[in-house]
Design a protein that fits this description.
- This protein has about 290 residues and is α/β, with parallel strands linked by helices.
- Helices cover about 50% and strands about 15% of the residues.
- It is built from twelve helices and nine strands.
- The longest helix has 29 residues.
- The structure holds nicotinamide-adenine-dinucleotide.
- The site of nicotinamide-adenine-dinucleotide has 27 residues, from helix 3, helix 5 and helix 10.
Length: about 290
Amino acid sequence: MKIAFIGLGNMGAPMAANLAAAGHDITGFDVAGASAPGVHSAPSAAEAVRGAEVVITMLPNSAILRAVAAEVIPAMGSGAVLLDCSTVDVQSAREVAEQAQAAGLGALDAPVSGGIGGAAAGTLTFMVGGGDAAFATARPLFEIMGQKAVHCGPSGNGQAAKICNNMILGVTMIATCEAFALADKLGLSRAAMFDVVSTSSGYSWSMNAYCPAPGVGPTSPADNGYKPGFAAELMLKDLGLAQQAAEAADADTPMGARALELYRTFVEDESGRGKDFSAMLPRFETRGR
Ligand code: NAD
């Protein structure tokens, strides 16, 4: 398939490289001049998308997505599919999809989970919003870049699934970290705490698969000095998108709102930037009531 890939950063470069390695013809563009193995470079986004059957975008935020979409949609051939894998707000995803559809294109929002490791290994999970025909076109590409693609409904629903999942993740990580810090102060060993909670009703992915306490449970960023992994500032971004959506939809999300506040303080005032999001545990350790 002839594919354009716009945004060859930490996630986009390995995703594009995997598509090229699988035999697809990939032309890439990144404002920073970044490239990826096996990917032909174009001088602009509009040049990259000419003649492409699928245009994949993997960009930092919604303002950049909107700007890139405005440039590439008029340059895409009728019937081509615009496949955005960035994490952006639901409203922007829906508006970009409407613009693409009005121009006779297919459109999918397909944010991912799995991080840089998943992008490199081709084991991402895609949460996809958009029409059936566009999903069918993109499915073989999801199979190369990822291990699972869930079609969540119409445009915007991929982003909706992603922010709901990550709101749960942010809240449960904070709860797990504050419980470890309390257990420390109550004289409970971390090994005992893990053994009990990971097999009791307090278990979660944060405790069982990504334990924030070093030396306990499976290997996680806690065992590597809290080097990300999933950086606290990316969690902050996703919690912000969740609250933006909750406000627009008039949904009451008090735990998500509190998690956003805590990650904002951690990232902006407490040198949490650049650390894994599970570094909430050393933050709680050093604090009293
Ligand atoms: P990144 O900053 O490493 O990459 C983004 C790339 O887009 C950069 O190379 C940048 O130069 C390029 N870019 C910016 N403006 C552009 C433009 N106008 N035209 C072309 N290229 C442009 O970010 P990333 O970590 O690769 O993340 C990309 C997206 O994936 C984000 O929306 C992020 O929230 C999401 N995401 C990231 C992770 C992760 O672990 N890094 C996990 C899941 C989802």
